[in-house]
Every structure is written in structure tokens, then in C-alpha cells.
Amino acid sequence: xxxVGVEEELLLVDPESGEPKARSAAVxxxxxxxxxxxxxxxxxxxxxxxxxxxxxxxxxxxxGEEIVRCRREAARNAGEIGCSVAALATSPLPVKPAxxxxxxxxxxxxxxxxxxxxQLVLGCHVHVAVESDEEGVAVVDRVRPWLSVxxxxxxxxxxxxGKDTSYSSYRSRVWQRWPSAGPTELFGSADGYHQxxxxxxxxxxxxxxxxxxxxxxxxxxxxxxxxxxxxxxxHADTAVLVATLARGLVETAAREWRAGREPAGHSxxxxxxxxxxxxxxxxxxxxxxxxxxxxxxxxxxxxxxxxHVGDALADTGDLKQVKDTCAELLRRGNGARVQRDLLARxxxxxxxxxxxxxxxxx
Length: 362
Fold this sequence. Notes:
Elements: E1 4-13, H1 24-34, E2 41-42, E3 49-53, H2 60-79, E4 84-86, H3 103-112, H4 114-117, E5 123-129, H5 133-143, H6 147-154, E6 159-160, E7 163-164, H7 170-175, H8 190-201, E8 216-218, E9 224-231, H9 236-258, H10 268-281, E10 286-288, E11 295-297, H11 298-316, H12 319-332, H13 335-346, H14 349-360
Antiparallel strand pairs: 1-3, 1-4, 1-5, 2-3, 5-9, 6-7, 8-9, 10-11
């Protein structure tokens, strides 16, 4: 059974005002002091962010428990220096992002300018094990049409600088400012993938291969493919759902490759439209159906995804749990809907942030 690991980025906020706080260095120092040898937290581009990485897991219940444990541990360490954490993919309240002091981040600020300074967005990246680069690239080529559905399920960023954007996942739109971000053409083979990487690096536009911000890529440091299209999810069970569906997509794609089935030939232009529609609509209205790339109700597209990965999920024993969680998510709404509902009830973006901070740790 393929292992799965999750990287989540959390927003550090003031527990009274809800405003983002640039205190990641202090939180990391606090966590390092308490947990030497079991450190799971990392700094990110901006000082208002805190990232954690789970261990590779095969059992989704174990993964869920670890996500909740890491979120609560992040909240505890943040609380000791006067902060809260919130699983929000953008800050609902206005913020002046503070770029970290690391040499890499300073290079990015110098090279990319305002795109770096404004890039306070928080995502959820899922790593799924593959047996080889060849299998990994076969997976990358075959999961492309389905990634927009993961964006719609996870969408959790309706507000930007104190205003409603009319998007469900505005994070994904801001992310597109990076020069290497977004969907990719078909690579065809591991050699084709690595040649594309060499060609991109030869342009001098990117500092290193870590800046290849493809929607899905071969991981640099692990034998995995990394799916990078999801907002950080407000509820931990949504993060588990995205991770489980990601493993189902990877296994389904690998089986198609071994059976000699060619990947869908959708162009990057159309994939960009599918990603935009998912960011705009989330789970309300229509999405583009991954098979024919034509509009369809969100519920129908989610059902198509479940059918597509159904055999793989059944083989790992995850199918019933995924169906139940999807049904609950469609009923409750994704993070974007929850945030808007909170604003409608309270009339206050501060209350949106504080309410989401409570939901983050369950």
C-alpha cells in the first residue's frame, strides 16, 4: 500500500484581534526547545506562516490523528508566545506580509518583487509514494485532469486584504504569479520530465529545482509525487479526504500506465480554465468535468472523481469513509463557505478568523 504524507501551512494570528502575526521564528524556537529530535515544524516564506510535515502513513486514520496532533501542538507552541494558529489559505483581515530572513527568501524578493512580498498564501501538499521516476511521471501525466476537483474540495480562501474576492480559492489565483506555477504539458517519460527541468533551469529564472511549482511534480527529496493544488483545509477531516483521494488518483494512474492506457491529452490552456473554474466556484455552481472538460454541477464532478478512483479506494479500504466525508463536505460546505457563513452570522472578519482558529484544532 502506498504511503502518504502531508505538508500543511498554518497562519499565525493574534488571539484577540485575529490579525496575522509575524512570529514564526519565536514559535519555531519554542517548539525546538520542547521537541528536540522529533521536530516537525518548519519556517516558510513569510513570518506569519508555520509549516508542519507528517510522517509517511499507510492508514488514513493514523494520518488524520497525526494531522490533528500536529495542529494542536502548533497551537500550543504558538499560544506560549501569544499567538493562535488558523488553517486559513489567505488572511481574511488586511495584512502586510513579512518576508523571512533566509537567503533564499531574500533572493526571491529581489528577483520577483511584489509577487513575493504579497504571496502570503497557505497550502496543503500531499506526497504519495511511487516506485520509480518512470512510474512517477506516468502518474503526473495521468492525474492532470482531476487536480482541479481537489482544489474545489479544499477551497478555503474567499477573502483577501479584508474583502470578499468572489472566489472560493483565491490562494490558487495568487499562486499563479510564480513563473513556474500551474499545470504542465504531457512529459511522456522520466527522460522527458528531467529534460524539461533542465531546460527550465537553464533559463536562469529559477533559483533551484525547488522552485518548479508544477501542480504535481516529482519530489526532490522523497520517492514520491507531490500534489500541490489544495488550499490548507479548514477541517482536519477535509485534509485527510484530499490525501486519500490523492493516493487513489496516484494508484489509479499507475494502474492505467501499467495497462497501457494513454493519458488524456487536454491542453494546458484547458487545464488552466478548469483550475480557474474550481478556484472561482469551489463546490457551488459548476466545475469542468475532467473527462470532456465541459461544465457540470460540482456534485456530479465529485461523483465522477469517486467513480474514477473507486477501485483503488476499495482496495485500501477507504471507499466508504471517502464517500461519507464527501457527503458531509457537500452538505457543510468547504472552508470558503464556512468562512462566508461565519461572516454572515457575525458581520466581522475578526470573528471569522477566531472562529476558524477554533475549528483548526477540532
